[in-house]
Design goal:
Rossmann fold; two-stranded parallel sheet; 38% helix; 87 residues; 4 helices
């Protein structure tokens, strides 16, 4: 989907990218993340041994939306505390 949107918008200088967040702590995930044993298993898969916070992804979003990211399009950028490195 991201690549198709990038192809369609590119001629109009519209970029399309995807920020793929790892396990992120939000009010919606608080109950799920309340189990210490489950958290230990989940976090063992992450190089950075903590859950993400919403702010962890915001820098990438700001970059992609800024002039500095104007030539980046059609990409999926993992922002996940190193999870994708451990797979």
């Amino acid at each position: 989907m991201t690549r198709a949107l990038a192809r369609a918008g590119g001629r109009y200088e519209i970029t399309a990218n995807c920020v793929a967040l790892g396990a992120t702590r939000t009010p919606a995930t608080d109950e799920f993340l309340g189990d210490p044993e489950r958290n230990k298993r989940i976090l063992s898969q992450y190089i950075v041994r903590r859950f993400g916070e919403p702010e962890d992804g915001s820098g990438m979003v700001v970059f992609l939306a800024s002039a500095a990211g104007a030539w980046v399009t059609g990409q999926t950028v993992p922002v996940n505390g190193g999870y994708s490195v451990t797979l």
